[in-house]
Amino acid sequence: MDDKLNAVLDLYYERILKERQEHADGISRPASERFMAVGPQTGQLINILARNLKAPTILELGTSFGYSTLWLAEAARRTGGRVITMELEREKVAFARDMAARAGVEEHIEYRIGDAVEMISELKDGIDFVLLDLWKNLYVPCLEALMPHLRPGAVLVADNMVIPGGEDARRYQEFVRSQPGILSVPLSVGTGLEVSRFLPG
User: Fold this and answer.
1) Beta partners for residue 184, in sequence order
2) Under a CB-based contact definition with an 8 Å cutoff, are residues 91 and 60 in contact?
3) Cβ-based neighbours of 68, under 8 Å, separated by 6 or more
4) DSSP letter at 122?
5) SS3 150
6) pTM exceeds cut of 0.90
7) I need a surface site. Which of 93, 115, 146, 176 has the fewest CB within 10 A?
């Protein structure tokens, strides 16, 4: 991590802490204004996992305001890989682009705007690493769309398995663990993760 990237990550973290305090105080913002970002522990973990891959194609489902994107882009920069990040809301992508430029990692990121399941189906390249961090009811449809695009050894990380958790999180965990060739475990990092590896055959 260099100073430019750390400075931008610190700005994000200040916003994350402010958002958590607002939530504790009963202040509610529209979903379109909430960062809903992975915390720094999850950011560090996805960076560590992605940096262990050689020149990976990294797919992020749910750019939001781009906090986790920076952790993944730093891994891509270190390994000669690249990040494809998908988001439905154009305004969030504009913010994420600006912050990535400030952090000096924008050249490692490709932004795609639209429906994640449709865009996954259009992918041309094999995927080596996936972060799922969008609406939980989309996790299973996204994984179904992803399966033909995963390279052997691909790592998948699904966020928010404990907080907020719920039926959609349980459905994803049951589904991913039932897939042939996928090994999967829960981790008590951040808001709860399901970490999986695709090892067909």
Assistant:
1) 196
2) no
3) 37, 38, 42, 43, 46, 60, 131, 133
4) T
5) strand
6) yes
7) 115
Chain Cα centroid distance, residue 69: 7
Q: 40: cis peptide before it, omega within 30°? A: no
Give the tokens for residue 84: 């494809």
Residues near 145 by Cβ (< 8 Å), separated by ≥ 6?
117, 120, 121
Strand partners, 83: 58, 109
> What residues contact 126, with CB distance under 8 A and at least 6 apart?
57, 149, 150, 151, 154
Q: What 3-state DSSP class applies to 4? A: helix
pLDDT score for 39:
85
pLDDT for residue 201 is more than 90: no
Q: CA dist 8 to 14, 49, 64, 101, 162, Å?
A: 10, 21, 16, 10, 27
| Helical axes 3-24 vs 90-103, angle rounded to 10° | 140
- What is residue 61's three-state secondary structure? strand
β-partners of residue 60 are 85, 131
For 60-100, the pLDDT digits (tens) are 999 999 999 999 999 999 999 999 999 999 999 999 999 99
Whether residue 44 contacts residue 71, with contact meaning beta carbons closer than 8 Å, is answered with: yes
Q: What is the DSSP letter of 182?
A: E
* pLDDT over 80 (residue 182): yes
The dihedrals phi and psi of 19, each to the nearest 5 degrees, come to: -65, -40
Cα–Cα separations (whole angstroms), residue 23 to 19, 66, 144: 6, 20, 34
